[in-house]
Amino acid sequence: MILELVHIDVLPDHHEQFEQDLATAAATVLPQARGFVEFTPAGWCVERPDVYVFTIGWETLEDHTQGFRDSALFEQWRALIGPHFAQPPVVEHYAR
Amino acid sequence: MILELVHIDVLPDHHEQFEQDLATAAATVLPQARGFVEFTPAGWCVERPDVYVFTIGWETLEDHTQGFRDSALFEQWRALIGPHFAQPPVVEHYAR
Fold this sequence. Notes:
2 copies of one chain form a homodimer. The first copy, chain A, is α+β, with helices and mostly antiparallel strands and 96 residues long. Chain A has 3 helices and 4 strands.
């Protein structure tokens, strides 16, 4: 499994709505994506209070970087959570 | 629970030994620490191949930042994995 680690800098007055929309997007959009394994919210950063972190497990790297990102599902995902971003997300992938 | 997220830049020729010593330290040192909940290795970074990420769950922030870091256990932990660091670890904490 590949773990996608996402840091998002959220607009200061959007925290609550971001959490709601992220939960909706994770429950409705991600399970439709090929290779999706799991979604895990880590929560808000103690040291940078506007930063939220979550992880998404994928069967392969390409399931995320090609399959999901090039799909209509990605547009639905971004339409839900994108309006709350203060900056573009910081994304890295990890493999064991 | 507080999630400690750790990025470690590992010396290039130490990858295998680092993984072994991290597994030893996680299995022998962490379970003795007050407030320790769980250890989860995320693995090696696809985008930065010398960077390894893991998380440690703690009951409270202070269990890590005061209890563990000020204890003799921390010295044992660092003695095992510290020799493999190319740079000081990057650590942040997350709470839901």
